[in-house]
Request: fold
Amino acid sequence: MRLYYLYAMKRSTIAIYPAALTTFFACLLLCYQMNAQVAWTVEQKTDMPEAVSNNAVAAAKSADGKTYLYSFGGIDETKAWSGIHNRSYRYDVLLESWESIPDLPMSTPVIAAGATNIQEKIYILGGYSVNMLSQEVSSNQLFEYDPTSNTYTEKASLPRATDDHVQVAYKDSLLYVISGWSNNGNIVDVQIYNPALDEWQIGTPLPNLSEYGAFGASGAMLDDTIYYAGGATVVGFNFTLKPLLRKGYVHPDDPTQIDWSVQEMEHALGYRMASLALNFDDTDGIIYWIGGSDISYNFDGIAYSNGQGVPATGDIREYDRGSGLFQRLEGVIQPTMDLRGIGQIGLGNFMIAGGMGENQTVHGQTLELNAGVFLGLDEETSEQASFIKTVSADYVKLKTAFTNSGYQIYSTSGQLMKQGKSEGGTISVSNLVRGTYLLSLKDQKRAERFIIQ
Reply:
């Protein structure tokens, strides 16, 4: 059975509205005032072929236009060093099914690697292996995966081996590898890979280890700025999580030059979270951190600090670039941690796969997170902000103010399904199958989600 949740988020007071429950749909609506409103739906999809955690996750399209979510390597449900593997899978977004792909050709199986889509190729790098003596070795290997040919090509090795690092793409052309752990400790390195040249460059290093150095941190790129939060820093003999948001402004004329800054923020704390960014305009935009834990832990889910099992969270943390606010929404998804990536599968649509749930249980759960975005709104509720009046199996009825508007309807994978002009405020959807869609109106800087049941 698929589970659905809806979170419509506004800044200030919070109100909870009960929603209708059906066999396959359950909705929870939270509203709090903000200029850019995001309504999350979370849908449980087909489980992975096996339970896996600490796997590198990303999404990409093949030449035939099909979108896939990918999982590379990880650790199985034993949570033992011998359970670390190179097995890899892909999820067909349209068919909602998983299949095996060739194993990730790392010389030694690793966990805590990273995967990033650049121009529909996926770059998987770093991570660490563990042997029977519990010795951990960071990797400097980099592979390019081609979704069309379903093959890997080894590329230029990282200048410095790293794992549990932050990994982001810049303008779909450069790959930034920030901090992480390299065999004996945190590092301040910023390593930049150019896929077109198969070359590495060194960026402006992090100013110091105590505030910027971290393993298990995560982040995303928004315009010319890197944002990363969470992760553990070595303090004495402890691996301490610090509530710090780090920012790195990349100079467009010289992408190796980065202006770094740091800010202490209560909710900028977590370990092995998935991270994504939603960009609204030149000033607004939100970076999200999903799931994770509030305690650092070893690859088996046991805390470094006290030898006890670590609890996972189902929270979403958000940093609003426009307002500077950092907030935390509790229980948005089922508790899950040990995440090493997220895949964007469409316009405002993202997926995570695998991880550890309650009691550090490794699972094969696949979740689709859909962000319905409404921009520039100050109304008290999402009902007032909406331009949709009613939805049926045959039509979408717009509110009076939007009568005769030009429109576009997209699937959740970003495919244009229909466009035209509404007739008397009515848009026929009788030719669309049951599912979730995004409706965009001409001259409206927002897209609104609707569901045909």
Observations:
- The chain has two domains: 45-366, 386-453.
- The longest helix spans residues 209-212.
- The longest strand covers residues 362-375.
- Residues 1-36, 374-384 have pLDDT under 50 and may be disordered.
